[in-house]
Amino acid sequence: MARVLSGREAGAALNEKNREKVERLKAEGISPCLAIVRVGCEPGDLAYERNAEKRCEKAGVLVQKKIFPREAETKELLSMMEELNQDPSVHGVLLLRPLPDELDEEQIRNALDPKKDVDAMTDLSMSGVFSGRKIGFPPCTAVAVMELLDYYGIDPAGKHAVVIGRSLVFGRPAAMLLLQKNATVSILHSRSRNIRDLTCQADLLLCAAGRAGMVTGEMIREGAVVIDVGINEDAEGNLCGDVVYEDALLKAEAVTPVPGGVGAVTTAVLVSHVIEAAARLCRM
């Protein structure tokens, strides 16, 4: 039976580290602050906003909310980004995406100063992920996976990591972070052939395809570590991942649950990025 890698446990440990870091910064007169920019009232945005606020509050990080109606125009969001860039009391900015189709999302997200980009929204921040330079921050979900591995003492060095999914939100950034930890990385996607053969070679299998139950037991190597990043709904409306969880429990050495896995660490990572951004900006 596989070991269950609880994101709630790893997230709680990171939350405690965040709280201690905030206390040290406040002793220097620095109060970390996150600005959340939301357009409209999409349920997913509201849920993430609530979770982010809750995590910030527990760590002692301040939150400002900038809410726009669904009918907002691009120029209004650009003006807000510039205002946040110039506000010394704001250290990190989270733009809840995707934005409505009528807005120029690319222009809006790239208007943000990368120094305050705590979730790799800007092209410059993403370039930092691929170059290894500290320009902004990597995507929170990709970092959350690395935090989970570190918490449970799973060293990627020398292991074959197979990532299912090539998005800029997770797949490609996660592959770069694994490379930085000296893993050998393969990225699989919708045009990949012989997917089963490749997943069965994986020491670390990271699944982010966005398809419920895509990864079955026959695709998992005995003794592999399986990290499920998928968030889907099953036929009964329950949350589930990309991996058939019961299959992974029987085949893998360790597996993350959904819910209660990677997602439980992601907002803690967001808060840690805000804290680090505050330290960088205020100590320059």
Number of helices: 10
Cα-based radius of gyration, to the nearest Å: 19 Å
Q: What's the pLDDT, averaged over the residues?
A: 96
Which structural class fits the helix and strand makeup? alpha/beta
N- to C-terminal distance: 50 Å
Give the tally of structural domains.
2
Shape: globular
Percentage beta strand: 15-25%
The strands making up the biggest β-sheet line up spatially as 1-11-8-7-5-6
How many beta-strand elements? 11
What is the fold named in CATH at topology level of the largest domain? Rossmann fold
Tell me the major beta sheet: 6 strands, parallel
Q: Could you say what the CATH architecture of the largest domain is?
A: 3-Layer(aba) Sandwich
CATH homologous superfamily assignment of the largest domain: NAD(P)-binding Rossmann-like Domain
Low-confidence parts, pLDDT < 50 over ≥5 residues?
Answer: none
Percent in helix = 40-55%
CATH class of the largest domain: Alpha Beta
**From N to C, what is the helix and strand string?**
EHEHEHEHHHEHEHEEEEHEH
Characterization of the model:
This protein is an alpha/beta fold and 284 residues long. The protein has two domains: 29-115, 3-Layer(aba) Sandwich (Rossmann fold), CATH 3.40.50; 140-263, NAD(P)-binding Rossmann-like Domain (Rossmann fold), CATH 3.40.50.720. Helices cover 42% and strands 15% of the residues. It has ten helices and eleven strands. The chain has helices at 7-27, 43-59, 74-86, 105-110, 123-131, 140-151, 171-180, 195-199, 245-251, 263-282; strands at residues 3-4, 33-39, 62-68, 92-95, 160-164, 184-188, 204-207, 225-228, 232-233, 239-240, 254-255. A six-stranded parallel β-sheet has the order 1-11-8-7-5-6, with helices on both faces. Strands 3-2-4 form a three-stranded parallel β-sheet, with helices on both faces. Helix 2 links the parallel strand 2 and strand 3 (62-68). Helix 2 crosses helix 10 and helix 6 crosses helix 10 (263-282). The protein is globular, with a radius of gyration of 19 Å. The N and C termini lie far apart (50 Å). The model has no long low-confidence stretch (mean pLDDT 96).
